[in-house]
């Protein structure tokens, strides 16, 4: 009966579902990085992460994404200097 139908009336072949691992676009793949930050900055990061209910990793990722999206050029030179002074570890006298 199927052979008697015209080719346009035959049921279309259904693709089999993909099995196994699918290839991942390298642009979408997460990679692990290592950074070194001062204990003072780490303390601030931990405090901010707790206030927002985030893990330290999530908070740092969010901050980096925000910096990449908006940049630092919106700060005045005085604000940038103040920020850098806050982030720089103070030497004990």
UniProtKB/TrEMBL annotation:
Family annotation (Gene3D superfamilies): Met repressor-like (1.10.1220.10)
Organism superkingdom: Bacteria
Biological process annotations from GO: regulation of DNA-templated transcription
Alphabetical list of InterPro entries matching this protein: Arc_rbn_hlx_hlx, Ribbon_hlx_hlx
Residue ranges, annotated region (Disordered): 1-25
Name assigned to this protein: Ribbon-helix-helix protein, CopG family
Originating species: Candidatus Anaerobiospirillum merdipullorum
